[in-house]
Structures are given as C-alpha cells and as structure tokens.
Amino acid sequence: MRATLAAAAICVSAVTAAAQTVDTISYSLLMAGHPAGFEKDWHNPNGSWHAHYEYNDRGRGPSYDETITLAPDGTQLTVTTTGHDYLKTPVAESYSVMNGTGTWKNSAESGSAPITVPVFYNSMDGANIDNTILARLLLRAPGHSMKMLPAGEAHIDSVSSVTLHANGASRTVIQYSITGFGFTPVSLWYDTDTTLFAIPNSWMTVIRKGWESSAVELIAIQTVGDSVRTARLAASLAHRPTGIVVFKDADLFDAVTGKIVPHTTIVVQGDKITAVGPNAKVQYPMGAQVIEAAGKTVMPGMWDMHVHTGDDDGLMFLQAGITTVRDLGNDVDESLVRQKRFGDGSLLGPRLILAALIDGPGPFAGPTKLLVDNPDSARAIVDRVAKLGYVQIKIYSSVKPELVPVIAAEAHRLGLRVSGHVPAFMTATQAVKAGYDEIQHANFLFLNFWIDSVPDTRTPARFTAVAQKAAQLDLGSPTVQAFVALLKAHHTVLDPTVNVFENMFVARKGTIDPGYTMVADRLPSGVRRGLLAGGLPVPEGMDQRYKDSFAAMLRMVKMMHDNGLVIVAGTDGFPGFAYDRELELYVLAGIPAPDVLRIATLGAARVMKMDRSLGSVTVGKLADLIVIDGHPAVNISDVRKVSIVMKNGVLYSPAELDRAVGIMPN
Are 126 and 2 in contact (CB under 8 A)? Predict the structure, then answer.
C-alpha cells in the first residue's frame, strides 16, 4: 500500500518516452491541488509490469522504479524496486517466490515465509501500481481478505460508485475501502476493470492524468461516507454523564504550583469543575458517578501545540490524554469544519486551535493555498483568516524576508499570534526582530548561526546541516548567549518538536525508531513496519556526529528553559504517541518532570491566552482532565498510562479508543 506524503513541486522525470508502451497509464500527484509529481505504469515486452513513481516535497521526495511479474493467479512472483526514498536514501527492494517460499529484502528488513495460500507482498517502497494488484487479488479472495507479507491481513469492501465528467469525457469509477494497513480504512477509487483511478485526499492526491479536476468531487463523496463512520464511533465511544461526576481521593497535579496534592476530590457538573479540595471537605450528592482515583494522578488534559491533524487523528489524541491541539497548517476551509465537528462531538477529537500557514510561491512552497508575494496579498490573506476565526499565523520557508514584518504587523493589529519556520535567507534573530512571537522547530535555533554557509533553508539542508554541525556549536559562547538574551527580551516562545529530530538524527534503518520502542508491538503491523524506515541518510563516518548533534539539541532546549524561555510541547508527528516521547525527551534533556507537566498543560493555555478556562484543575474551569495509573511528576513515562480522559465533561476510555483503531492493550 503506497503511503503518500506531502509534495509541492514537479520533479523532472528520469523516465524516457522510449521506455514506455502504448498501454502506459499515467497519474498526477497533487499537493493541496498543486502539481507535485507523477507515476507511470506500463507493460514491458516480457509481460511484466513497470512503474515509475516520483514527487518533490520541498527538496525531499522519492523517485523509484518498480518491476513486477505476476503468477497466473495474479499474485506477485517477483518485485524489484530501485531508486531513492523520501529522504534520498537509496532503495533496493526485492521479493521473489521460489519452491513455495516467499523471500524479501529491503533496506530495513529481510525474511522469508512458506506460501501455502495466495498472499500479497506489501512493498516498503513501491508505486501505486501495487494498489491495482492488491484490489484484484482481494476481490477474488474468499471473504475479500488475504494474508500479507511480511505481516498482516488486508480486507476490501465496495462502498459506492460515481460517473465523472471532465474534458468532454465521462468515466464510471468505484470506491473501495481497504483495511489492514493502518489505524483506519483507506479509500481508493478504481476503474470498472479494477485499475487504480485515484487516491483522493486534501493533503495529497494520486489521480489518473487528465482527471485532476475530479479530485474535489471524489474527496467530497469520501467526506460524506467518512462522516457516517466517524459519527458512529462518536456515538459509541463518547460517554456523556447524566449527572455529577466525582474523582475521589486522587493525587492531584496542581499545574499552578507544580506540586502533587494528595487525597483530593474533584467534582464535575456538566462541562465545569465545581469543587476541588481535600476528601473530607468536598461534598457531593448521593447517586453521583464516583471514579475511584486512589493511588492515581489526576491532572489537566494535555496540549499538543504542533499538529497537522486529519479527521481520523482525533481518537489518537484523546487516547493519549491530549484534550487540546493547535493545528499549525492545514486546508484552511476543511480545518474550520473539523474544528466545529470536534467541538460539537460529531467527530471525536480534542479542542482544536487553528493557525493559518502562509508561504511564498515557487518550487519549495509548502502545503498551503495561502501564498503571498507582495505586501497587499500578505495583508489580504491575514485579514481573511482572521475573519474566519484563526488565531495565529504560521510563516513558512518561502516567504520573502521583506514580507515578514508586513505579515507580523497586520497579524498583531488584528490580535493574532505570529510564528513559523524562519524563512530562507533570514535568521531567527531577524525573524524575532521582525515580529515573531514564537519559533517552530529547534533546528532553526542552530541555523541562526550559519546564515553564511546555509542561507537557503527551504531545502533538506535545514536538517542535514544541523545534523552535521550542531554538536560543534558552543552553547556557552557570547554569540549564542546574546541570542538567548534577545529571545528572552522579546518573550519569544519556543516549539522545539525534538521528537522529529530524534527520528531524523538517531533512527537507523532496520531498527525501531527509538521514540516508539515502548509501543511498537501494540501497533497495527503496517504501522509498526514503518517504524523501521530510519531517519536521514548518514554520510560515511558521521553516525556518532548525528547522534551527538541530537544531544546538543536537547542541551539547547534545556538551556532555553533554564534561561526562562517559554517552551510549548508540540510534535509535528505521530498523533498521541509522539507527544509522550516529546515530554520524555524534555526530561532526558534535564528539565524536571513537574516543569514538563506544566509545559504540557497550564503553560500552553497561557501562551494561547486560554488559561482562564483551561490548563489547571480549578473550580470554574472547563472539565478537561485525565486520570493516569501512575505518577508522571516522578516518572514522566507514566504519561503513557492514561486510563480515563474527560474533555468538556465527556468521558472517554483510552482502552476503547485504542481498540477502535487497532492498538493492542497497554
């Protein structure tokens, strides 16, 4: 199953016209509606299938060729894939069946298994032609299900069909739902001969060339169907109390003081906290729903301050005890709908705070429709999103430096926060002076000192340069300390997302990403397999340097905290589980666990000026709180043991949420 990623500009193909045949099938890859890349599938003279797949995501993105031979029953006899993956690591994947045994090898794994029934080999790096082969096999299989290698089982269901019209032509396509690869079903559209037609998504769409205009219609149809599924989940998984709820005899984490207050009782009525105090002094009526919390920690719901959420991510956030998230870049219109649905409970998820992602046009433009190239367009877009209810502007890497103060001034005039990447050809120092309230990602704190050698941060150089040089930066130097003083003077907030860089700098192909070793075996097989993919390609002799640079990044975060800089916990990654790791990394950096819990709760609420109603377990505030079977103020990893979640007075069971997305019990 092809996992599609964000993209922003067309790559130049290495495929020559001579290599293709008259039966070539061409696909466009669109990112936020913009051309991003392509795939071409065709038959070789020997009857095998060949596919070329590539796209460019701001300098990242895969490019590979896949050749497949099929047995008479439609299963793969051989699969060979070469090229490079999303992070430009060489790809050399193979699968073959011989004498009743399937054998596979790729950059992350190798293995073999006896084949006694038809199976589908799920390529780690493969083209979308795999989806055509899979669908044809599943539709013929008993029960429309079949085993996969290296692990798992796939199942297909027919959902709907529609006749599309474009460029004077019409075409009937069929929607199928395939499960077995991740947390939720995947919608794919096929021609009547079961050739893949489209995988539509607002983030990235694969669609038959010439039919790009139909993507919006297909996404709309999927949205209606998904709404039915998610509404059914919401009805079964949200437990709405009929009366007063009491959390009795808890160890309460006081987010104001950072202290644990033992033997505390909390009373909730409706969506508000109505009483908090010692067990002996808090009264509640007979018939109240009492949750025994002796020996457990009750604390405010946590905040993930850097997400790019989709509809299906809501369950993952809630199961982790995250009751509020800040989306830092998504489809500007879809996000408003999602915010409303999270709020009214028709879609399960946390409270959603929206920031609008603004970038400049060009080959490295980010995944957004909000592109600015002059002061007038910049002000107009800021005004537009402010009227829509957005509370923050996130500036991206291709914005012209001279437009940053224009955007910041207009945003501040309208009461919006300003944050983002540091645009290319600009330093973090300059961005703060131009009006940034907050900086996303710790790598930009290091790049501030290397503008001469790394001026263009639109490319992956913003990662690789830090991996190669961060360990050598003297954090105690006058230059670095002057930067810290500047940030402090401007009250600049930092959103370091260090879990992202642990993956990039420390993860290695063939071993589980270090941030997920505690949970990998609980995840669906396809998700677990993805954790073997590794991070950035590591040049010869640089393995330890990359690891040392990540350690330097943690030291930078600790130094900023010690100097009084406000840090917010954001992930920009895997919903839920990445957040647990982000908090663990702050403690690993040397920040005390109680301080980390304050960062995760009241600190975030204060940054977003929502601390009058959220962020602490206080009488009169909204009833966002969680029960943890442990003591995270002592052992931060106990944040992984959330047993009850309450958001706006509604109760959720993380165990039930986990089962709904195929996560094994903790």
Answer: yes
At residue 21, the pLDDT reads 61
Rg of the chain, C-alpha, whole Å: 25
618 closest CA partner among 353, 299, 380: 299
Are the CB atoms for 422 and 439 separated by under 8 Å?
Answer: yes
Nearest in space to 490 (alpha carbons), one of 436, 443, 558: 436
The separation between the first and the last C-alpha atoms of the chain, rounded to the nearest angstrom, is 27
Nearest in space to 183 (alpha carbons), one of 665, 663, 654, 664: 663
- Give, in degrees to the nearest 5, the angle at Cα 260 between 258 and 264: 130
Distance, CA of 341 to CA of 320 (rounded, Å):
20
Q: What pLDDT is stored for residue 11 in this prediction? A: 32
3-class SS of residue 232: helix
Positive/negative CA dihedral, 631, 637, 639, 641? negative
Max distance between CA atoms of the chain, in angstroms, equals: 84
Closest CA to 105 of 132, 140, 81, 134: 81
Joined tokens for residue 36: 């991003």
DSSP state of 601: I
Look at residue 338 and tell me whether its pLDDT is greater than 60: yes
- Both structure tokens of 302: 């946590």
Q: Which of 215-224, 443-452, 607-616 has the lowest mean pLDDT?
A: 215-224
With tokens 């009491």, the residue in question is 246
- The answer to whether residue 8 scores a pLDDT higher than 90 is no
pLDDT by residue (tens digit) across 49-71?
A: 999 999 988 878 999 999 999 99
Q: How far apart are CA 162 and CA 156, in angstroms?
A: 18
Q: Tell me which residue of 596, 580, 604 sits closest to 324, measured CA to CA.
A: 604
Tokens of 484: 């810290």
Query: 150: cis peptide before it, omega within 30°?
Result: yes
| Tokens (6 digits) for 492 | 């600049």
Task: Say how far apart CA 381 and CA 145 lie, in whole Å.
Answer: 48
pLDDT, position 15: 42
CA distance 356 to 326: 11
Residue 347: partners with Cβ closer than 8 Å, 6 or more residues away: 227, 230, 231, 234, 311, 314, 338, 341
569, 570, 571, 577: CA torsion to nearest 10: 50
Q: Which residues pair with 419 in a beta bridge?
A: 394
Element containing residue 114 per DSSP (H, E) = strand 110-114
Q: pLDDT digits over 83-131, tens only? A: 999 888 899 999 999 999 999 999 889 999 999 999 999 999 989 999 9
CB 188 within 8 A of CB 176: yes
Give 629: exposed, middle or buried? Use CB within 10 Å, 0-12, 13-18, 19+: middle
Angle at 454 (CA atoms; ends 449, 456), nearest 5 degrees: 125
DSSP 173-204: EEEEEEESSSSS-EEEEEETTS-EEEE--SSE
Residue 544, class by beta-carbon neighbours within 10 Å (0-12 exposed, 13-18 middle, 19+ buried)?
Answer: exposed
What pLDDT, in 10s, does the model give residues 361-397? 998 888 899 999 999 999 999 999 999 999 999 999 9
For the chain, the average pLDDT equals 94
- Using CA atoms, how far apart are residues 266 and 245, in angstroms rounded to an integer? 8
